[in-house]
Design a protein that fits this description.
Length: about 800
């Protein structure tokens, strides 16, 4: 029994030795040595060891062949590794040898780059510094030559542009410190020159006035057939010599806008008159201009203007103060008036040659002061009584009235401009309804309406024009009466009065009324109906121009067929206004069409459907309804205008639909989308066939849609064989289809077909369609290349 327990104990100890970590085996062995069966345990241990050896030997025998094979493979790999190592070493040595030259070149390149950078930096610094030195040298030359305004400009450029770019250099700091000193020097020098100028014109104002008056008298004596109208206190120089040398020119268009507005030039027998300031020949105004420019650049313009006006007011009081013995001699009066004329000649010249140094209000203020002083002086010295007592001639008063005639005409033009604008603003741009014979006679008495067919119609009826036409025609006659009234007591001949009235009326037509009509046409929110009425109105006004001719002939008693008689320009004025209204109609109509087209919302990837299942797009139905109602208003328009508007609208619709197809943002288009667009195009063609505007021959209006029609037919019928075979022939069925357009549309369909093939790879029909599209694209590209070469 004890031996069994011992054997079990030894077995347990052996299992514990096999399964326990070697660090914890000490207590187990100690229990063996402490027991009495040590020898027996050793035998069991040896038996267990032999057993494990047998198992190890079995395992080794089982895996020995794989181990041998692995060792063999490892030996082979070692040989290849040795070869690879040798090759890597050789390659490294060769690379090191060849890289030495490259490293040397890189070092040289690095040095060159450093030198290049240094050179570029130097050039850049010199580029910024040299302009500073050159500009400073130019500044010194300008200061030495006393060209102070250019010097000030140079100073500004130097300070704000060149010096900041140059950087922080000592010479730049010195220049910057000198700039305020130079600016102060320029300002003081300019003011000194201005004071000298003011003193000079104060001393010589009588000489200036005498010269201006003599020039005016000389102008009137040059040609008695030409009535000159110089601006107040400004002389004019005749251009007869220039006209003789350059040939005769027509009608006063060669001058500047200033001379056209301020001068009172009447063109008689193709001669031109040119305004020449009387003071310019005697006075050098450069100190004023120079000082004004300098103070403006310095930001002290207000200071300069106040100083100049203050000094001139002081001089005005001195000039207007008469001498105590002025009334004793005629020379005293002459000298007094010469000084006044000279003063205002200078101020007028400054007013028209400077911008804002003196304004019209300032000159009028001085003139009011002068009038009060002159009246007081004349009353004190009994000038009027002296003139009446000694029988001085008063013909110059009539000359003055003639000179003021053009100014009076300008005032009338401004007044009638306001009148025409008010009439247009109050007009409802609708035909005038008349319900009785009395109303009809009332309007026909205001405007010469001659329409036998309209007279035959029963009441109530409508006059084709709006209220603007009779009102405008009456205002034209009122203007003619106003011109006639002014010239009644000027001792002019009937021919001169007729010429004056016709020229003033031409200005009213070509400038005032024309601008008012264009104002009405270009006004915001003007509708198509209003533009149509403008065309009708201008047509009737154009037809009434010969009545105006007869009206002027009746009041002046001058036959219109005289050689030198001026013709009215009313026909061209109303034609220009009508053409502007027509152009505005075309533009507005296309803009309205664009608003409808913006509502188009095509599903470019829609699947193919039967044509019977498709309906016209809602936006196009609304657009066609709008066009029908719009063209119904065009019935009173000239046929050509209505036809042009209709053709323009159809072309715009066709072009816009084509642009929708070719829009770069639309990358894919299905055949279903083309069918929908084809249905919409059929609706457009039905509208064109219905003849919305009379006058088109046959299917002329359909030609506007021919490009889009042929393109859609080509794709919906897939008739590529006919297109490719007949391309370039005059009888080609698809003559208007551009191959570039067809190619672009096919590319978009190709993308759609390719996507469908990817989604349904096993549908043979889709794959065949993709191949067919690719083949057509290839042939189109070949066709394009052939015709380009």
């Amino acid at each position: 029994m004890a031996s069994v327990e011992t054997a079990a104990e030894h077995e347990r100890i052996l299992r514990e030795i096999e399964s326990t970590d070697t660090n914890c085996i000490g207590p187990t062995l100690r229990s063996v040595y402490d027991g009495q069966e040590h020898g027996l345990f050793m035998e069991k241990l040896d038996a267990r060891i032999r057993n494990h050896d047998r198992e190890i030997e079995k395992m080794c025998n089982h895996h020995f062949q794989g181990f041998v094979d692995s060792i063999t493979e490892l030996l082979k790999v070692r040989g290849e590794a040795q070869k690879l190592k040798s090759q890597v070493i050789e390659t490294n040595i060769r690379l090191q040898e060849e890289g030495k030259g490259l490293v040397g070149s890189m070092e040289e390149l690095k040095q060159c780059r450093v030198q290049q950078m240094n050179i570029a930096t130097t050039i850049d610094k010199l580029t910024h510094c040299l302009p500073v030195l050159e500009m400073y040298g130019r500044l010194q030359e300008q200061m030495k030559a006393k060209r102070y305004y250019p010097a000030l400009r140079t100073l500004e450029q130097l300070e704000h542009t060149c010096l900041p770019r140059a950087g922080q250099y000592r010479f730049c700091s010195i220049m910057a410190e000198n700039i305020p000193k130079l600016r102060t020097h320029i300002r003081d020098t300019a003011m000194t020159q201005l004071r000298d100028f003011l003193e000079s014109i104060r001393k010589h104002s009588d000489k200036i006035g005498e010269t201006a008056i003599r020039q005016a008298q000389l102008q009137r004596s040059l040609d008695s057939a030409v009535t000159l109208q110089p601006r107040a206190l400004i002389g004019r120089r005749s251009r007869k010599e220039a006209a003789a040398a350059a040939g005769t020119e027509s009608g006063g268009h060669g001058g500047s806008p200033m001379s056209e507005q301020d001068s009172g030039i009447l063109d008689v027998e193709d001669e031109e008159e040119e305004e020449v300031p009387g003071a310019q020949d005697l006075v050098d105004f450069s100190p004023v201009y120079r000082c004004l420019h300098i103070y403006t650049v310095l930001g002290l313009r207000d200071v300069f203007e106040n100083y100049y006006r203050k000094q001139r007011r002081k001089q005005a009081r001195l000039v207007l103060q008469p001498h105590s013995n002025m009334h004793e001699t005629l020379e005293g009066y002459r000298r007094y008036f010469n000084q006044i004329v000279g003063f205002f000649v200078v101020e007028d010249h400054v007013l028209h040659t400077t911008q804002g140094l003196v304004n019209r209000a300032y000159v009028e203020e001085l003139w009011e002061l002068a009038l009060s002083k002159i009246v007081a002086a004349l009353r004190t010295h009994s000038l009027i009584q002296n003139k009446m007592g000694y029988g001085f001639p008063v013909s110059q008063l009539f000359d003055m009235l003639l000179e003021m005639r053009e100014q009076y005409g300008e005032i009338l033009l401004k007044r009638w401009n306001i009148t025409f604008r008010q009439i247009l603003d109050q007009d409802n741009f609708s035909p005038i309804p008349v319900s009785t014979e009395q109303e009809y006679r009332h309007y026909t008495s205001q405007f010469p309406q001659q329409d036998p067919e309209l007279e035959k119609l029963p009441f109530p009826k409508k006059l084709p024009f709006s209220e603007f036409v009779p009102k405008a025609y009456c205002q034209l006659k009122e203007f003619i009466y106003a011109c006639l009234k002014y010239s009644e007591d000027l001792h002019l001949s009937s021919t001169e009065i007729d010429d004056m009235i016709r020229k003033s009326t031409n200005l009213l037509l070509t400038r005032t009324l024309s601008n008012s009509l264009h104002y009405a046409i270009k006004k915001k929110n003007v509708g198509l109906a209003e533009l149509v009425q403008v065309i009708i109105n201008t047509t009737h006004l154009e037809q009434s121009c010969h009545f105006l001719e007869e009206f002027i002939t009746n009041i002046t008693n001058v036959p219109p067929d005289m050689v030198n008689a001026t013709k009215l320009y009313g026909t061209s004025t109303f034609k220009d206004a009508r053409h502007a209204a027509e152009a505005e109609i075309y533009t507005s109509l296309n803009a309205k069409i664009d608003q409808f087209l913006q509502l188009a919302d095509y599903d470019w990837m829609s699947p193919a459907q039967g044509s019977g299942n498709l309906t016209t797009s809602d936006y196009l139905v609304d657009l066609i309804a709008f066009l029908r109602s719009t063209f119904s208003v065009f019935t009173n328009l000239p046929g050509k205008v209505a036809q042009t508007a209709c053709m323009s609208a159809c072309k715009h619709i066709s072009t816009s639909l084509m642009q929708l197809l070719l829009d770069p943002e639309v990358r894919q288009i299905s055949i279903g989308a083309l069918h929908q667009l084809n249905v919409d195009l059929n609706e457009c063609e039905s509208f064109a066939r219905a003849g919305p505007v009379a006058g088109f021959q046959g299917d002329t209006l359909l030609l506007a849609f021919s490009d889009l029609r042929q393109l859609l037919d080509l794709f919906t019928q897939w008739d590529w064989s006919t297109y490719l075979a007949d391309y370039g022939k005059p009888t080609c069925k698809y003559l208007r289809v551009n191959p570039h357009t067809a190619l672009a549309l096919l590319e978009k369909m190709k993308e759609t077909s390719r996507k469908n093939v990817v989604l349904a790879q096993f549908k043979k029909a889709d794959r065949d369609r993709q191949k067919l599209i690719d083949a057509v694209i290839k042939q189109l590209r070949s066709l394009i290349a052939q015709h380009h070469t």
